[in-house]
Amino acid sequence: MAWRGLRRVGPVLAPRCPFLSLPPREPAARRLGTSSLLLAARKFTDKHEWVSVENGIGTVGISNFAQEALGDVVYCSLPEVGTKLSKHDEFGALESVKAASELYSPLSGEVTEINVALADNPGLVNKSCYKDGWLIKMTVANPAELDELMTEDAYEKYIKSIED
């Protein structure tokens, strides 16, 4: 406690007490919220798919809004690896106890991987739509298409506008 108080008054006393020398103060560590950083990199479509691109590969899934609207997902129909998609192409479907919903590609490219865990556990889409419940990974044929998608903030505004 005394040291903390001395740190506060040290700069004030320093001109009067030349023998008082405080260790250099290190800048406080900055905290970065990983969830907001991860979401900031995600782009969204008006059909509630999201894509996150790293090293030219896009990971695609559905938004939290979409998974909540669907309810418990019981089946996922996904394309085969190697399937070529254009932006807005239908690439699969999700079926839930409430409804079925088609999936649309947010970008043009080729499917490089599908989430095989969804075959045995489609509920991952509900439990972890932004992490373990991703749907496909694909190459990004036209990076400029990313600019046409919504940021997280724009998507949240869009959701509010359609809920009203």
Keywords:
single chain, 164 residues, alpha+beta, six-stranded antiparallel sheet, three-stranded antiparallel sheet, globular, disordered N terminus
Model description:
The protein has 6 helices and 9 strands; from the N terminus they run ααβββαβββββααβα. With 164 residues, it is α+β, with helices and mostly antiparallel strands. The strands form 2 sheets. Strands 1-2-3-9-8-5 form a 6-stranded antiparallel sheet. Strands 4-6-7 form a 3-stranded antiparallel sheet. The protein has helices at residues 2-13, 34-41, 64-70, 117-120, 124-127, 152-163, and strands at residues 43-44, 49-54, 57-62, 73-77, 84-85, 90-96, 100-104, 109-114, 136-139. Residues 1-40 have low confidence and may be disordered. It starts with a helix and ends with a helix. The radius of gyration is 24 Å and the shape is globular. 25% of the residues are buried. It is 29% helix and 26% strand.
